[in-house]
Write a structure and sequence with these properties.
Chain B: This is NADH-quinone oxidoreductase subunit J. The complex is a heterotrimer. Chain A is mainly α. Helices cover 75% and strands 1% of the residues of chain A. A two-stranded antiparallel ribbon of chain A has the order 1-2. The mean pLDDT of chain B is 84. Classes of the chains: A mainly alpha, B mainly alpha, C mainly alpha.
């Protein structure tokens, strides 16, 4: 609750700070605000509250998710480097929109009422449409924003229809009310209820880019400015999965037999579509887009199984995934910028290809290390956080007895290793004419922090488990 | 046929009104999608909104009906029309879609519609009909709505303002003229 | 102060030192590097001492949980330290000797351009060694185990411009991996059998098992394979002599005093399991005596000062295991401690000699150094006296205790042990005499350059010499302090096999006779060495000289390296070649086929990504239709 209030106020303050001549105050201010929100988030630690007539819930799980979201945005904002090299950028607005969108994300994490979920999803989505199109002079950015908007509106329509049907069947918008209706599953529920559930699921699955509702993802992630791609692929995904987890666990456990198989099939398709398509990509950024689809698949395993371990598995996985993704995109931004200056080619496609990483590690050991760590983590190699994330996910599937899904997931993570290692090979074993890249101190701290977190969680995964 | 007629005989005037409005809504909504000229499209959309407002009135939600007309039919549609006129979309852009995709879309969409109708008409999806005895006729009035919005729904209601603020900031940000942009 | 914080600080301080020197390599001023590294270890040592002082005499193990580390299903592995008599003793040795060697390294290495890196690695090594010793379960021990292996690899190959040094490093790495595999399998078997890896729980459960349990035998043997690799026992010992390629302080710290004794520590730690598996102990005993004799005999004819010490280390490690095999765990630990003192002393003394001789290591080119290096000479002589098992220095007591227990156990092993002790005495005094007595045989330039080492190097020598001299007092015959102190550790073993821990059956008179015999043999060997190398002034022949057949065999270290090359490396390589040419076809075909399939499907899937919103929406609606059909219209 506290972060919502603080972030709303801070975002408005940021808009006013935008009037100042100097842009340099914006970045530290935003980081400060995020830290304040993070601290405020933990004020309710170990207590469970329902706020405003059971609209919003805070408990340890929601606080941990909120913390992940805030931490991710902190890292992303820190990497944005005040947009100092871009005259046309409007950092005050960007940061304000990010803070506003976090309000939506937190609503999605802590909602107890479908109305809250809807408003939260919309806040987050609208913010993302805008940020995707924020590179106004870039046609690809415009196109991506438009596509995202149209598809998103469509998905929102479906989701809203689903909510309406759920309300019609159960007579309640609250999760508790829906759950009490669903608890009569033995006596038979109205089919309208099931249709509503499916449509709501489809809408949310679209937001987390699960196949076959993922088609927008590569185009949008590719077209959006890299920094916002990093934001989208972490914060939106974490919030989306927190929303799905809460929805399914709180309201629909009684009808697991109805949606479990659907979700399992969607999981398998997502894993295959994401991983297999990523193999063929030549652009690193596009590869990361497909990789984010595949990670949505891994996260879905925990939902499709919905066992006792699922919460912990999803929390751990989203954290590991967010950190690795952000640092990978951070390195990509540096490399792209450098290549852009070197070759004087404004064609971003060649600057974001795998070849752009050739020989990176020799001249820039820190960048090489950061990238290698995050790739290893995304690939799920032991001693990185990603390994334990996958491990927990897979063990939820085992607990549910979904062995076929497990087999698909393991095969697909083997495919994943192929394209993640392409980057590592390019960085360490290819020769390239890269010169040392100047890394600003903030950037350096973020990358080092990401490396430490990834390895630290990989060596001692129990650290996080103790939290809740 | 007799069944059909019998059904019509049982209807109250509200029922007739409902059927009429529904037919109009569906027709005008299809007009939105099929019209070649964007202006016609927008006009059909306005008609759709009016029909929807009619539905709201039938559902005893007078305030919602009024707001729907004011906001959508009034403000938003005017904005749409302005935009379309500014953009000068008079020439009919050639559609890139082949017949195959059209047919496929129609089949899939039609299947979805048929499926939904079948599901909703199935016996197991019927809901118990609520009794009209305790019905409060003022439910849809401003006062009750206000109590609800500022009572139990105060949080989402207030937070919706964040949504609008984002949209505003975004619109200003994306729409702000930059050096070198052309003037309208 | 809180005990948990103190325990956490012990390994953290060296880690901090590593981070400072490692991150700040070439930035931290050279003068500070050594100070930081040494102080970090010294501080740990002081903490250990304070813990040791406050530790209750008869107290049970104190478990210090730091955080939940791994929990998978029912298996919970916390990250916790265990402080008890055994780990305290090892901690004292590791940090104490470690401090001295750090101090020594300042003098020995400060000219080297990689000085900062070197000190950082040493700190890192201490960190992992402390983890190994302090961990409260096998998994933490394994992490430390792997960590010290890594540091050993890094430090052996520290002068990595030399190819043969790199090869030595690699050899050490590979041989240790073989052992680690055994250790790892042992841990898995433990998890499988007991469902936990915590020492306390494992041993508590183990005490209820019957003697000679097969699973325990398997575990004990697998763990011993790990110990064989780390503690250089036959057949995995050849890496240790080669490891002398590293800088001398490394040889002293890692390859003499601490890391190589990890295997003994592990066996003593798991003493309950070994007591339960007498067959495993017999295997240990046989391997130990073979190692002790084999290494000692090779040592007789080595001419490289460090190689002689290396083989003597292997041989001494054999003695320690010999003691363990007779369930004389205390005696084994006692020898670990005294060995740490005198072997570190000998290596550091050798380092001082090498330093003075401008990196000359061949004893044939030395001689008469006692005048030029008085401190080194005296300390080295004390070390030699101690290792040879001559009274009244430390080695005499520890070795005799082992031999006394072995005598009780098996007379044959005892006789062989005494023989080995004679050999030890001979080659050590040979080394001493050739190096410090007689005429100087090096070049004139070297002679001109001869100098005593700086104080940072001699002070550790003197301290270690004192410890080597009086270290025997820790456990005087007839129930010394150490055996009393360590008693709680062997409570479990005593419970499962009271006989093995019964009061010694040999009478005191017999015991004195045994002592006299072994001391006499050592003394005889000393006299023999004196006669050969001082009276007759014999100097070992050069490499090319003709040798008699047995001499030739020993000189070439029994051709073990060549044997391994011929019997293991080459067949594996040719097998690899065969598999390669065969597998190239089959495996590559399979792999490439799968890769091709993935790529093709990827190319097809990619086409779906057409970029047209119409198609995307179409796909979405189609999927919704399919889901509805699946859930509402198709029964299955």
């Amino acid at each position: 609750m506290f972060p919502i209030v603080l972030l709303s106020v801070f975002a408005v303050v940021l808009l006013f700070l935008g009037f100042l001549k100097s842009r340099s105050v914006l970045l530290p201010a935003t980081l400060l605000f995020l830290v304040a929100a993070l601290v405020a988030n933990f004020l309710d630690w170990n207590k469970t509250y329902l706020y405003f007539n059971s609209m919003l819930r805070t408990d340890n799980l929601s606080m941990v998710f909120t913390a992940i979201v805030l931490l991710s945005s902190f890292l992303v904002v820190a990497l944005s480097g005040s947009f100092e090299d871009d005259e046309a950028a409007q950092p005050a607005e960007y940061y304000a929109i990010i803070l506003f969108s976090l309000v939506g994300a937190i609503m999605m994490i802590g909602y107890e009422n479908l109305v809250m979920l809807f408003v939260g999803v919309e806040i987050l989505s609208v913010a993302m449409y805008i940020l995707t199109g924020s590179d106004k002079r870039n046609l690809r950015s415009n196109e991506a924003a438009l596509k995202y908007f149209l598809m998103g509106a469509f998905a929102t329509g479906i989701m809203l229809f689903g909510m309406a049907l759920l309300y019609g069947a159960s007579g309640s918008f609250t999760l508790a009310g829906i759950a009490s209706y669903a608890s009569h599953a033995q006596q038979g529920l109205s089919l309208i209820f099931y249709v509503g559930l499916l449509m709501l699921l489809v809408g949310l699955l679209f937001k987390v880019s699960a196949a076959p509702f993922h088609f927008w993802t590569p185009d949008v992630y590719d077209g959006a400015p890299t920094i916002f791609t990093a934001y989208m692929s972490t914060v939106v995904k974490t919030a989306g999965f927190a929303a799905l987890l809460h929805l399914l666990a709180a309201s629909f456990t009684y009808v697991y037999s109805f949606w479990g198989i659907i979700l399992a099939v969607v999981t398998a398709i997502t894993l295959i579509a994401g991983n297999v398509t990523a193999v063929y990509q030549n652009s690193f950024k596009r590869m990361m887009a497909y990789s984010s689809i595949s990670h949505a698949g891994y996260l879905l395993i925990g939902l499709a199984a919905l066992s006792a371990q699922s919460r912990q598995a999803i929390v751990f996985y989203s954290l590991a995934y967010s950190i690795a993704t952000i640092s990978a995109f951070g390195v990509l931004m540096l490399v792209t910028r450098q290549r852009g200056m070197q070759t004087l080619s404004s064609n971003p496609l060649s600057n974001e290809s795998f070849d752009a990483f050739n020989g990176l590690a020799k001249q820039n050991p820190l960048l090489g290390l950061a990238m290698a760590t995050s790739m290893l983590s995304l690939a799920g190699i032991p001693l990185t956080a990603g390994f334990w994330g996958k491990f927990y996910m897979f063990s939820t599937a085992v607990e549910r007895g979904q062995i076929w899904l497990l087999v698909v997931a393991v095969l697909m993570s083997a495919v994943g290793i192929y394209y993640y290692f392409r980057v590592i090979i390019a960085m360490y074993f290819r020769d390239g004419a890269t010169e040392p890249i100047r890394i600003s101190p903030v950037f350096r701290y973020v990358l080092v922090a990401a490396i430490i977190l990834t390895i630290g969680l990989g060596v001692a995964p129990g650290l996080l488990q103790g939290l809740f | 046929m007799t069944e059909f007629l019998a059904f019509f005989k049982t209807l109250t005037p509200t029922g007739y009104l409902f059927l009429l409005l529904t037919a109009l809504t569906v027709i005008s909504a299809m007009g939105v999608v099929t019209a070649r000229n964007p202006i016609y499209s927008v006009l059909a959309l306005i008609a759709t909104f009016f029909c929807l407002s009619g539905h709201y009135i039938l559902l005893n939600a007078q305030f919602l009906a009024a707001v729907n007309i004011i906001v959508y039919a009034g403000a938003i549609m005017v904005l749409f029309l302005f935009t379309i006129m500014f953009l000068n979309l008079r020439r009919e852009d050639e559609e890139a879609k082949t017949n195959l995709t059209k047919i496929a879309s129609v089949i899939v969409g039609g299947t979805l519609m048929v499926m939904l109708i079948m599901i909703f008409r199935a016996k197991s999806s019927q809901l118990p009909v609520g009794s009209t005895v305790g019905f409060e006729p003022n439910t849809g009035m401003v006062e009750n709505l206000g109590h609800l919005l500022y009572g139990s729904y105060i949080l989402p209601f207030e937070l919706a303002s964040v949504l609008f603020l984002i949209a505003m900031v975004g619109a200003v940000m994306l729409g702000k003229r930059e050096a070198g942009d052309r003037h309208f | 102060m809180q005990i948990g914080l103190l325990c956490a600080l012990i390994p953290l301080l060296p880690l901090l030192g590593f981070v400072i020197n490692g991150v700040g390599f070439r930035r931290v001023p050279t003068g500070l590097v050594g100070g930081i590294a040494t102080l970090a270890v010294l501080a740990s040592f002081l903490i250990v001492v304070s813990l040791f002082m406050s530790f209750p005499a008869e107290g049970g193990p104190q478990i210090v949980p730091l955080f939940d580390w791994i929990s998978v299903g029912d298996l919970h592995i916390p990250f916790s330290f265990q402080i008890d008599q055994l780990s305290l003793l090892m901690l004292l040795v590791v940090t104490g000797v470690g401090t001295l060697i750090h101090l020594y390294s300042i003098g020995y290495m400060h000219h080297d351009e990689g000085f900062g890196k070197f000190m950082a690695f040493l700190n890192l090594f201490i960190f992992f060694m402390l983890l190994l010793v302090m961990g409260a379960n096998y998994v933490i021990m394994f992490i430390g185990w792997e960590g010290v292996g890594l540091c050993s690899y890094l430090l052996i190959g520290f002068w990595n411009k030399n190819v043969s040094y790199n090869n030595a490093a690699r050899k050490a790495f590979v041989m240790n991996r073989i052992g680690d595999l055994g250790f790892l399998l042992g841990i898995f078997t433990i998890i499988n059998t007991f469902g936990t890896v915590e020492y306390v729980d494992v041993f508590k459960q183990a005490t209820s098992l019957p003697m000679g349990d097969t699973t325990v035998l398997v575990i004990a043997l697998l763990l011993f394979v790990g110990a064989m690799g780390k503690s250089a026992q036959v057949p995995l010992y050849t890496w240790l002599p080669d490891a002398m390629a590293g800088p001398t302080p490394v040889s002293a710290l890692i390859h003499a005093a601490t890391m190589v004794t990890a295997g003994i520590y592990m066996v003593v730690r798991s003493n309950v399991l070994y007591t339960l598996a007498p067959q495993a102990l017999e295997v240990v005993g046989i391997i130990a005596i073979i190692t002790a004799l084999l290494a000692a005999s090779i040592g007789l004819l080595q001419n490289d000062i460090k190689k002689v010490l290396a083989y003597s280390t292997v041989s001494q490690l054999g003695y320690m295991f010999l003691g363990l095999s007779a369930t004389a765990y205390t005696a084994g630990m006692f020898h670990v401690i005294t060995h740490a003192f005198f072997k570190a002393l000998l290596f550091l003394g050798a380092g001082s000699v090498i330093h003075a001789m401008s990196n000359e290591q061949d004893i044939r080119k030395m001689g008469g150094l006692r005048k030029a290096l008085p401190v080194t000479f005296i300390t080295f002589a004390i070390g030699t006296w101690a290792i040879s098992g001559l009274p009244p220095f430390a080695g005499f007591f520890s070795k005799d205790e082992i031999l006394a227990h072995v005598f009780e156990h098996s007379k044959v092993l005892w006789a062989l042990g005494v023989l080995g002790s004679g050999l030890t005495s001979f080659y050590m005094f040979r080394l001493l005499f050739l190096t410090f007595f007689g005429e100087f045989r090096g070049t004139a330039e070297q002679k001109h350059h001869l100098h005593e080492s700086p104080a940072t190097m001699t002070i550790p020598l003197i301290i270690l010499a004192i410890l080597s001299a009086v270290g025997g007092a820790l456990n005087l015959p007839g129930g010394g302090w150490l055996s009393h102190f360590l008693e709680p550790i062997f409570e479990g073993s005593r419970q499962v096999n009271p006989e093995a821990f019964a009061e010694s059956t040999i009478e005191h008179s017999t015991e004195y006779v045994l002592m006299a015999v072994s001391a006499g043999v050592a003394l005889l060997a000393l006299i023999a060495a004196y006669v050969m190398y001082i009276s007759r002034k014999a100097v070992p022949a050069s490499d090319e000289a003709d040798r008699s057949m047995p001499e030739q065999v020993i000189y070439n270290k029994y051709y073990v390296d060549e044997l391994y090359e011929a019997a293991i490396v080459r067949p594996i390589r040719s097998m690899g070649d065969t598999f390669y040419s065969f597998g190239e076809f089959a495996v590559d075909g399979l792999v490439n086929g799968v890769a091709w399939l993935v790529k093709q499907s990827s190319a097809q899937l990619r086409r779906l990504q057409s970029g047209s919103i119409g198609f995307y929406v179409f796909a979405m609606v189609l999927s919704i239709v399919l889901i509805f059909a699946l859930r509402f219209f198709i029964r299955f």
